Amino acid sequence: MTAVNALHRGLRILRAINDGHAQVREISAACKLPKSTVARMLETLVADGYVAQDAQKGYHVTARALTLSRGYNANEVLLKAARPVLESLRQHQIWPSDLSVFDQDAMVVLDTGRDPGTLSLNRTVGSRLPVLVTALGRAFLGFAAPELVEHTLVRLARSSEPFDAPAKNAAAVRRLLAQVRRQGYATGDREYQRTTRTLAVPIMVNAVPVASLNIMVVPSAMSVEQLVKSLLPALGAAARTIGAALSQTARGRNAG
Predict the structure, then answer these.
(1) Domains recognised in the chain with CATH numbers
(2) pLDDT beneath 50: ranges in the chain
(3) What stretches of 69-221 show up as alpha helix (H) in DSSP?
(4) How do residues 189-248 score in pLDDT, each as one tens digit?
(5) Conformation bin of residue 206: beta by default, left when phi > 0, alpha when psi is -120 to 50
């Protein structure tokens, strides 16, 4: 199958705008594309109604982009089970957290407990995060089927993105994921965002990871060891509660 490069570029630009890159120069840098290419793609996206331009604020995604997700509801059950648990977790913890799912070569944020600007981050629902250098990705892949891990490593090894570079040393990644599986959690120490230390755990249903959940702190607040000791009990309990709710929902559907 031959990939359509122009479509790849257009989708990358659409994702960059959705992540908050509003100016041509910002989009060009985020997508690693020439400004001239970005400008042409933007003209097409504007003409088709998926992107609009504001004279002062730059480009933004329009409501029409929502039509692209009408047929996708696979995560509705997960969100329904997770939101009350996440609300409780965030009421008792001062630190922000994300719920994410695996999507081919990235972790996609489904729910975030962060106000814009918190910890110098501006993640939103739908943000795509690298798999190998984030605790969210490591927590998921650490418990994923070996076939999925190998497929992902092969895919990411072909990537030109700097955060995917660890895939080129597959043996080292496998050792890291084996450690994650043994200890039951993953950590990230300023590898993706210099402003955060992160702890993440998988959400399991019938011994299969369906999502991952993290909690983040500023590095000056605590070490990685302190992060695990202080926050793993609450984070792990939240993940187990969500997994149990999802298992119960699945049993109810099967019984029906």
Answers:
(1) 5-68 (1.10.10.10), 76-255 (3.30.450.40)
(2) 1-2, 71, 116-117, 256
(3) 76-92, 135-141, 146-157, 170-183
(4) 999 988 899 999 999 988 899 999 999 999 999 999 999 999 999 999 999 999 999 888
(5) left
